[in-house]
Amino acid sequence: MRFGVLGPLEVRDRQGRLLLPARRKERVLLAVLLLRDAPTSTDALTDALWDELPRSAAANLKTYLSDLRRLLRPDVAVETRPDGYAIDVARADLDATHFEDLVAEGREALRDKRFDVATERFTRALGLWRGPVLDGLPVPAIVRPRVTVLEELRLAVLEDNIDARLALGQEVAGELQGLTGEYPLRERLWGQLMLALYRGGRQAEALAAYQRLREALDTQLGIEPSPGIRRLHVEILRADQALDRTPTAPVAVVPRQLPAVVRSFTGRQRTLAVLDRHAAKARADRSGTTVVVSGTAGVGKTALVVRWADGARDRFPDGQLYADLRGYDALPPRRPLEVLSRFLHALGIAPERVPPDLEEAVALYRSTLADRTALVVLDNAATADQVRPLLPGGSGCLVVVTSRDRLIGLVAKDGAARIALDVLTPAESAQLLATLLGEDRVSAEPEATAELAALCAHLPLAIRITAARFGESGIADHVAELRRGNRLTALQADEDTAVRAAFALSYSALPAPARRLFRLLGCVPGQDFTADAAAALSAGTLPGTTELLTTLTDAHLLHRDGDRYTTHDLLRLYARERAQAEDTEDRRNEASRRLYDWYTAHAEAAAAVLYPDMARLPRPAPRPLFENEAQASAWLDAERANLVAAVLHAAATTATTEAPVRTTGDAAERTTANTTGSTTEVPAEDPGIGPHAWLLADALRGYFWLRMATVDWLTVARAARRAAAGDPAAAASAELSLANLHFLRSEHAKAIEHSTDALHLAEQGGWPAGQASAHNNLGGIHRQSGHLAEAAEHFARSLEIDRRHGLPAGQMASLNNLAIVAWQLGRLADSTEYFTQALQLRREAQAPQGIALALGNLGELWHTRGEPDRALEHLTEALVIHREIGARVAEAGNLTTLAAVHNDLGDLPTAYEHARTSLMLARDTGERRIEAGALHVLGDIHRRAGQPADARDCYRQAVALAREAEDDFLEAEALIGYGEPAEALAIARGAGYRVVEGRALTALARAALAAGRTAEAVAHARAALEIHRATGHRPGEAHTLLLLGRAEPERAGAHWRMALDLFTRMRAPEADTVRGRV
């Protein structure tokens, strides 16, 4: 059920139907309850409803409340509390609080210079307003301050949004002219108008705007503009260059994925008009429309659709998505899940939030596009089944599919329209040749032009490639050369022959080195490549290879986009054909091995920089290829799709023997099929690249963890597991990867299965680092499930293996995990020692990720021990490193702890900012444990700020998420905040969480004292105090002493003096309160 107060009062049920109380008084009552942050007393409610109270006011109020409950039941409850009445509505279900949350996210993005995200959030927030607050209803005095705050916030958001759009370089001057007329005394709007006009080359108008503002302020208020506006005026007068600079914004959230338009596109006017009509229908009906453009190879389907789509950008304001499905490529077809992953990322969904399950990914994709008007281009589809998961569903989106097949199933079952694209007409062919060769040459030889077009079967691709070879000689000479070609068994003017003839003619004209490189490029497993990769493939120098690539690009056999090269799928197939015909098998295999060696060397070098302390398969130390973490991350990001393709291709070259069936685990991960959408053909020849499947997967495990790229991670790990069937150590590495993935997704049963398999395989393969890593995995799962004894046993065994074999990286991980267990058991001093040892080892190893994790853990521990300065020192250093290496999940965890420290210091604005950022990061990355922690801290912040309703809502969500993640420790902590300390105490005692046990006892004491059960309160408090002192949890000790002072008045002085000493050392704001009592 959703509620609206930003305009006329609205209540809508799950089906979107409008429900409103019949009586006007009931509507006012509902509005008051919705706008209040805290329970509202009976007296306050009656004052809100009646200027002069009738005798029946109390009875009428009960009737109104009863009717409201009946209207809202069962979705929303009107609760009776000791201090009044309250309505329990999730923030997302009330437009006012949803508006505030969007504003907070937008302002966070604005501070981070993510201007595209900021304006998207601000625009959505402003779109929630339907008119003045409670339009049509009297606004009771009790909620007028809240209404004023909301309306002022709306104006501030208008200004914030203008700032973001100015930073993006958008045109806003016209809009600002209207806003300054509507709000003539808001100086910020005038300053924005002055800046927008100046940046638009309208300096005189900018200066005139300043004069209008000055006159308005002087006339109405008798004041001058503010110093900031006066300074801007002077800078405009001086034409200060600083005014021209706008902060750099990251790539916009609105996707623009269309490839470049073919510059010499010709004809097709009728077909373009048909596409226009389909686009208009999709927008008018708000229905999902699919159009299939079918035609033979080389007929220009992609060029047509891209040309039309480029001209139709403005009709699809929410973006254009594009994917080459490779339905007729030499490479394996793109899997629907792979395409969905990239689409969702382009739509603003982080890769780590994309489910590795196809159905879940489809659901997320369709819900993301549900309210958007976007264009989706699916190029080179082979079957309807390849397309269906990529259809957005019912929305205003248009999907355009290109295929050599007519895709009858998509037309019949899914209602797609079909456009059959024929070859060019003779006139269009002549026009294209005129565009390519020049009007004069074509008009001078009309008959030869017509014959050339006919020999090319009027196919645009064949015409372009043929025209690329023309020099100064005449068209008739080239026609004769094309006819003389004896490469083809039969020269006929059909489509296939024309394309192959054009390819052959261009290929034969190349110098021998360029022909050789072209043939070898058929070995590239991915969609694109760099000059470095091509040099490795051909064993050439970089300058020489770059020169050859330029030759191929000039011949239209390659397409260059920045520093990367791609080629048409038909050309890739032709390259492979020529390689089969002209190069020996040994030469082809040598080239493949060189390329895969290059991929693996770079992936391993990047791994050594980014996560050197992660357990890896035994390999020679990689040659340093990257200077820093940023370079290593950038290379992996750029090559990720190619590396995934390389793993799949390498795995396909190995024997198809099925991996040994485990005694535990699901069958879905023991099959040789590609379970994410397609199968990979096993080549007839084995170039000897099979081991690269598991070597690349082993190197990428840490990268996938950092990026939380779950779809690619699962694909690569499963392929590596299949390929490594005969190598126990390699299979163990793949099992560890699967275990890590399932653990991060809180799928504990699967994580245990894969970790157990990894342990056994590592033992068989004689890989001690793998054994230790498997024990660490198992310990982590048991720890999170609340089985601390089992966890400690696995961590101790891991540390013993690491020390016996001299593995410092493993020792770091084992010490870190032992520290966490000691922490949860309440042995805070032991935990500090373990963390300190781990940090020292990581500093010696110069492992940035490990250093940051150890610093973050120590920071959280010092916070638990009541040492805020030490905590802030460690957490701040960790945060800098996490942001440098792009470890977003770890950054979110760090921010949660920083928020908690600042909250305990009484710095609520900073605490709130950190907690909100952490929450957004956690939700972006799909990390439920950190999301639960962030919500818990937000609850603490709201409670300290005197906002109990918001605090309770945060705690409730934190409990639910902790249970979903199967994290007993987080659940117990959240339950204390939620007001269920007895349940928290049961969990803590069952698992041995001593610090949480002490906190739960303190909370029970507080509840007992509030209820007047003083003896019970004292008993709980004394038990809690004993635990806090034994564990070294000073914040808990201080709060318990404060409570005991209230429960035992005769000993209050002694209790409060000890509490004052502790609060003072912790720089806690409670020190001032206690000092007054002492």
Automatic annotation (TrEMBL):
Keyword Transcription carried by entry: yes
Statement: the UniProt record of this protein carries the keyword Thylakoid: no
Positions of TPR repeats: 772-805
Compositional bias ranges of the Polar residues kind: 671-681
Top-level taxonomic group: Bacteria
Low complexity compositional bias, start-end: 654-664
Keywords linked to the UniProt accession: DNA-binding, TPR repeat, Transcription, Transcription regulation
OmpR/PhoB-type domain: residues covered: 16-87
Residue ranges, annotated region (Disordered): 654-686
Domain Bacterial transcriptional activator residue range list: 94-237
Gene Ontology MF term list: DNA binding; identical protein binding
PROSITE patterns, per database record: TPR (PS50005)
SUPFAM superfamilies associated with the record: C-terminal effector domain of the bipartite response regulators, P-loop containing nucleoside triphosphate hydrolases, TPR-like
GO process annotations (BP): phosphorelay signal transduction system; regulation of DNA-templated transcription
Family: Belongs to the AfsR/DnrI/RedD regulatory family.
Descriptive protein name: DNA-binding SARP family transcriptional activator
Source lineage: Bacteria, Bacillati, Actinomycetota, Actinomycetes, Pseudonocardiales
